[in-house]
Write a structure and sequence with these properties.
Blueprint (H helix, E strand, L loop, with lengths): L9 E3 L2 E3 L3 E3 L17 H7 L5 E3 L3 E2 L16 H16 L4 E6 L17 E2 L8 E3 L5 E3 L4 E2 L5 H17 L5 E4 L5 H6 L14 H4 L1 H14 L4 E5 L13 H13 L5 E5 L18 H5 L7 E4 L4 H9 L5 E4 L1 H5 L3 H7 L33
Parallel strand pairs: 3-4, 3-15, 4-6, 5-6, 6-11, 7-10, 11-12, 12-13, 13-14, 14-15
Antiparallel strand pairs: 1-2, 8-9
Amino acid sequence: MTATTLLTPLRLGALTLPNRVVMAPLTRLRNSPTGVPHELAATYYAQRAGAGLIISEATCIGPRASGYPGSPGIYTPEQVAAWRIITAAVHAAGGRMVLQLWHVGRISHPSLQPDGALPVAPSAIAAEGKTFTAAWRQEPFPVPRALETAEIPALIAEFVHAARCAKEAGFDGVEVHGANGYLLDQFLQDGTNQRTDQYGGSIANRMRLLLEVVDAVTAVWGNDRVGVRLSPYGTFNTMSDSDPLATFSTAISALDARGLAYLHLIEPRATNAGGQDGTVAAPSTSQLFRPMFHGPLLSAGGYDRAEAITALAEQRADAVVFGRLYISNPDLVARLVADAPLARYERATFYGGAAKGYTDYPTLAVGSAAG
């Protein structure tokens, strides 16, 4: 097993990737209060255009979708114009970029909602812990308002509008965010979905919104330019399900039938599944669910170089998604191939701020990537 495995081209639907190293959607919270991407974002993403694919930071589909101060949107002309500059910079640097469509659901605060309203969710069940307000203060998560059944068509229409805006902004496709305890994941798992209408109860009902959103978005983009991200067994944002194997097997099989560009799975080790002390073994989602999805599978979850090469060589994944290492190593592909030292990231600069910890990480010296 060698690093050349990382450089094997890969077809994801309509996209051809020159390598199998993918940049994860990384929330950085450096955008304007109105969700317009920071002007430095064009530099930040272009620096990382060597990735086989860049998945944008999670991007709000509408005003009620926001849950963090400084998160970007994709629903106003000003946001579209700013994203267009970013995609142009990535394409000029030879890269490919899809936008991740995001609604946080209950993971929000009234200060981030229009008119100070409560966040919406499948059911009126609060997440545990605290969240950031618009003023960057931490307060307990509020009890969300359960979406009325009659409101769901308008919610799906927001996803459609955002998908159209992403196309106008010059992206190469979109990824539907169904993971990490945000709205679509909240509908999917029964720990957060206790509805009694056609969007609650059975697995078929609980996955209905996810599939309706995916179908609506593929009507805009075509199924060969749409991916979906899921986090089976993940516990981030206090998520749980009484039978995750059945829930996610059913949902993934339904997504498989849609011929999507890819499925993006997060390994539960990245979301504290099994306990932070590691006393309870969490399954490998790439191994467990691989037989159920016949299209390209992307796997994320704290991979290092050796683990990525092994996962690809054993065909447990078709591409490996890197997050934090891409923050501090804009030329990550070159470093992985050359087995060069990796720059250490600074957690203190992950969220908010400007250039420091964002666009100022160095690349390898000229010629050192040749190994």
